[in-house]
Specification:
By secondary structure, the protein is an alpha/beta fold. The chain is built from seven helices and ten strands.
Length: 254
């Protein structure tokens, strides 16, 4: 029987093992990507009983430590991939540089901040959304997406990349990102996108913030729509003084 061990503290004010942003970045550093491929990491927050949202938004589950880790994970990534509906619902803005990780990014040859990639089959994205024309933002879609929506977004200054025909092929998304030098991928959901990554066996890491809440509602599970079962191994567990847990699950890269 393996002994239980105490989780490392993340933000406890009186702990001698507090982790600052640089220490967190060390713990969550990306492994080398496979040749011609990417490391696909997802970051999600969920309740104790596995709900991904409260009142249809993930923001109601977050805490101070979760916000800190969210920013650090973005500060390590080359690209943040998120479903367009999730980005719109959660009020996404551009990815901002992390001041504590600028030197690390420069040493690794990364740009000052991650780019943003929105995944959408339907292209039902408001043309007035400020993300659309933001420098570096891409919309990853499919060739069969509605032509009128495609034209509307292109007229608004959007950058569209076809990754598949009838729907977005996430393997093609990975190939596109690797081909443009963005191998450190951070997926921020939502549950349907994460479920598809799971189904396609494209997920290399899952970082889960467990919020100290029971929801007992009908919100989506952290992954939605997938029937696949994948086993990961625990890299570490962190905790904070607000009773949140932070678990990094990984698998050996192919």
């Amino acid at each position: 029987m393996h002994p239980l061990t105490k989780a490392t503290q993340l933000t406890a004010r009186t702990s001698a093992t507090d982790l600052d942003n640089v220490a967190l970045a060390d713990l969550y550093a990306y492994p080398p990507a496979p040749a011609g491929g990417v490391v696909m990491r997802a970051n999600m927050v969920g309740s104790i009983d596995g709900a991904a949202t409260v009142n249809s938004l993930s923001g109601g589950l977050g805490g101070d430590g979760d916000h800190q880790l969210f920013a650090v994970l973005r500060g390590l990534a080359d690209v943040v991939v998120v479903g367009a509906r999730t980005a719109i619902a959660e009020g996404y803005g551009p990815v901002r540089p992390h001041p504590d990780l600028a030197d690390r990014r420069a040493a690794l040859g990364q740009s000052p901040t991650a780019t943003l990639a929105l995944v959408s089959n339907s292209l039902q994205i408001p043309a007035g959304n400020p993300l659309i024309a933001d420098v570096g933002t891409e919309i990853l879609t499919c060739r069969d997406a509605p032509a009128d929506a495609r034209a509307r977004l292109l007229d608004a200054g959007a950058t569209l990349v076809d990754c598949g025909t009838g729907s977005v092929d996430l393997a093609m998304v990975g190939a596109h990102l690797a081909g443009t030098g963005r191998s450190r991928v951070l997926c921020e959901g939502g549950p349907s996108l994460l479920g598809t990554l799971l189904e396609r066996d494209l997920l290399d890491e899952l970082c889960v913030t467990v919020a100290p809440m029971l929801t007992a509602g009908d919100a989506k599970h952290l992954t939605a729509g997938a029937t696949a079962v994948r086993r990961l191994r625990r890299a570490h567990v962190l905790a904070d003084d607000q009773d949140y847990l932070y678990v990094r699950w990984v698998r050996d890269l192919r």
